[in-house]
Amino acid sequence: MTDDSNVGAVLIVGSGIAGLQAALDLANSGFLVYLVEKAGAIGGAMAQLDKTFPTNDCSMCIIAPQLVECGRHPNIRLLTLSELTGITGCAGDFTVTVREAPRYVDMDKCVACGICTRKCPKRVPDAHNDGIDQRKAIYVQFLQAVPLKYQIDPNHCLQLQRPGSCGFCEKVCPAGAIDFNDREKIHQLRVGAVVLAPGFEVYDPGRDRVWGYGTLPNVITSLQFERYLSATGPTDGQLIRPFDGKPVSKVAFLQCIGSRDGNLCGNTYCSSVCCMYAVKNAIIAKQQAPVLSTTIFYMDMRAHGKDLDKYLERARNQLGVNFVRCRINAVERQGLGGDLRIRYINEHGRQIEEYYDMVVLSVGMQTQKSSLALADIAGIKLTADRFAATSDFAPVQTSQAGIFTCGAFVGPKDIPQSVVEG
Question: What is the pTM of this model?
């Protein structure tokens, strides 16, 4: 498939908050924008969050209007389930190749009634909830998804894996939108500039083995904790233990998991947001369950942003969040009931042993492998920490003329900083 456009068009890779902001700003300035997103819906990581710091505003309430505006804007073309595979030309006149994977659902026919997903027999871990619960093989990522169209996971669909073995969704779809013969499409686009905003991935703490993640059920990541707190999450906002479903009464947050550690994880940089999202999660948890005991184990609390110091002091002095300055070496099982034991040496040199219902690992940000491949395709330079290389005087300009970047691909940052760059 070939699409011709004016060279004044811009290609944006990634539809997180930075990519969305860039797309809307360019589209409102009169540029034709191609917004490329590898997932089935736009929104990125912000769509998974429950609240934002330091105001504790609803994350979806902030991003949903932008999702809708991007979906309806006459100057924005959404290319979901798509990846950039090639760039030729020079600044002002690029030819880019975009590969669009099959959705197996006709977007013009699908009315998002949900009958297909209710009848689908195949269940798989739900990535939107970071694996806490399951979804079906035909699904939408979240209720406010844009575009609100179902997609079929080809890696788990019974019909696509073994033709003739299922096909329930095709039989029950009242709109006749299911298309198992859908194939990938190749788009050749002419654009004047490219913006790389592929976002980030969180560090996988399971690779370290010392934290118990993946082996101790009540050790979870900060994103999973966020989904537990969310009213739209798998537990409707109820904070319960994965091990037995009991309410949590005592939780520990361990900081700098996947950051500031050249030996264990290899990431020596600070991920910038972990301190404050741990404080945010502790505050939200305390507001939902005032009797909950929360402790944050940290090396340094870095509250560098507008009103973040006040936010930190509110947690410490008004809400009773405990802060302990030390580095935890390991999390251990305590008995057979799912409890967890943490040993540490406090600032006075005393060895302390405490027990918790749940341990939350504040995982840092890092560049995705797909983003490293994207950098190779674009021919841009990376820093030693594998982020896009820019300069202090041109913070969104990459090493290639006409190719720009923003958001977490430049380095770890919070939502306001990402919006400013976008």
Answer: 0.93
